[in-house]
């Protein structure tokens, strides 16, 4: 926090820093981004759409271990550097289904990581990224609750990578090069699960809304706190509050505290109250979350279209350094005919039960009844 301009302006009355308007913060007011705003692009066909739904090639060389019911899978006994194109496609499909997939003890180099991720599309470039191939990710030892008083971006909160872009990233991959023994974990939450956990009335309400994703707050913070000049001017994008995943066809909540500041169709106070609810909803979703303990050589690959994530701040002193690559995704869209993950599971279960009933002559109601041994009797 020592880099914040507000630290140079201390109130004689309280002894605390004074927040400066961005127009009068010389770090922010004097910056001229070297690049222009992006135009919409149409990415290549998602590699997951080329995959074998059963993922036979991938699972022939890797052991799958699901960490929670909703999100997060570890693939054991495999090196990413050794995967063939077909196996990489199947990995992408697994990521679209499980949200995030983890690996330990990987032998990838930065060049190898870049080459691997180019299989999935055109590499994206973070607004603060100077290397066109990757961005360096470090940990946070600052008190993000304190920082938020003096710079507007909630840098410690859940987000999907640069969700404010016209074409937000689809896949991201982070490989850890340095890491403390304790601290610096990352948490992911499934946005499939977040949507499923809403009431039907709330689902109907937000299905038609547009969330305002902005880079304005991050733009100011990058300049003030990080001391790095953003490459592009700030942008606001109005994306569907519920997006349809192009691979799975499932609905996912497309709202995150890191970049969403309101809803286009709502008035200010209405938006604020809804944002307060979603902050609670996301942070209380332990049944749809996973927390990963990093080590040197660990890798995580996730899908920004169906997860939010955050690094857990800490007071560790050892360095934390990771290399992240991302690829461009499609412009978010909402298909009103799409369905939620839980809704699909229930539909498929009912269809299977109906087929079974037709074959055996047992009605769905009879098949759904518990067996006599399963019925609890009073004591």
Please outline what is shown here.
Residues 66-324 form the TauD/TfdA-like domain. This protein is an alpha+beta fold and 379 residues long.
CA gyration radius, whole angstroms: 23 Å
Mean pLDDT: 92
User: What fraction of residues sit in β-strands?
Assistant: 15-25%
The SS-based structural class is alpha+beta
Number of helices, where a helix is a run of at least 4 consecutive DSSP H or I residues: 11
Please give a handful of descriptors for the protein shown:
379 residues, 26% helix, globular
What does this structure look like?
- The N and C termini lie far apart (about 60 Å).
- The protein is of the alpha+beta class and about 375 residues long.
- The protein is about 25% helix and about 20% strand.
- It has helices spanning about 25-30, 55-60, 85-100, 110-115, 145, 190-195, 200-205, 215-225, 270-285, 340-360, 365-370; strands spanning about 65, 75, 100-105, 135-140, 170-180, 185-190, 210-215, 235-240, 240-245, 250-255, 260-265, 290, 300-305, 305-310, 320-330.
- Strand 1 (about 65) and strand 2 (about 75) form a beta hairpin.
- The protein is built from 11 helices and 15 strands.
- The chain is globular, with a radius of gyration of 23 Å.
- It has a 7-stranded mixed beta sheet, covered by helices on one side.
- Belongs to the TfdA dioxygenase family.
Task: Describe how the helices and strands are arranged.
Blueprint (H helix, E strand, L loop, with lengths): L25 H4 L26 H4 L3 E4 L6 E4 L8 H14 L1 E4 L6 H8 L17 E4 L5 H4 L21 E10 L7 E5 H6 L3 H7 L3 E5 L1 H11 L9 E5 L1 E3 L6 E3 L6 E4 L4 H16 L5 E4 L6 E5 L3 E5 L9 E8 L12 H20 L3 H5 L11
Parallel strand pairs: 2-3
Antiparallel strand pairs: 1-2, 3-13, 4-15, 5-13, 5-15, 6-12, 6-14, 7-8, 7-11, 9-10
